[in-house]
């Protein structure tokens, strides 16, 4: 398939790291292509560079952890505490 014939779409996802609490959003260009075996395939791009699918094994840019929850775009604010991390009450 010629580069000009490739179908492109754009999708955004929100992410929250369950290890360090970092949350972020990222937009992806999605290119629908045909692989060398003639099968349909999808390629994800960020700033024109191919990247792994954000839906399979994402990693946190803050801590490198892989315990990452993928959320609907625009939901990062919903997973962040309003005033920073909650403090635990003192023991005893």
Provide the fold topology.
Blueprint: E1 7-17, E2 23-34, E3 40-46, E4 49-51, E5 68-72, H1 76-79
Antiparallel strand pairs: 1-2, 1-5, 2-3, 3-4
Question: Could you please describe the fold and organization of this structure?
Answer:
The structure is a single chain. By secondary structure, the chain is mainly β. It has one domain (3-79). Helices cover 4% and strands 41% of the residues. It has one helix at 76-79; strands spanning 7-17, 23-34, 40-46, 49-51, 68-72. It is elongated, with a radius of gyration of 18 Å. It starts with 6 loop residues before the first strand and ends in a 13-residue tail after the last helix. The mean pLDDT is 82.
Our Rg estimate from Cα atoms comes to 18 Å
Q: What count of structural domains?
A: 1
Q: Please state the overall shape, judged from the principal axes of the Cα atoms.
A: elongated
- Give the helix level as a range of percent: under 10%
By DSSP, the count of extended strands is: 5
Please write the string of helix (H) and strand (E) elements.
Answer: EEEEEH
Give the count of helical stretches.
1
Q: Biggest β-sheet, characterized?
A: 5 strands, antiparallel
Strand order of the largest sheet: 4-3-2-1-5
Q: Low-confidence spans: pLDDT under 50, at least 5 residues? A: none
Strand content: 35-45%
Distance between the termini: 68 Å
Task: Give the class from helix and strand content and strand pairing.
Answer: mainly beta
Mean of residue pLDDT values: 82
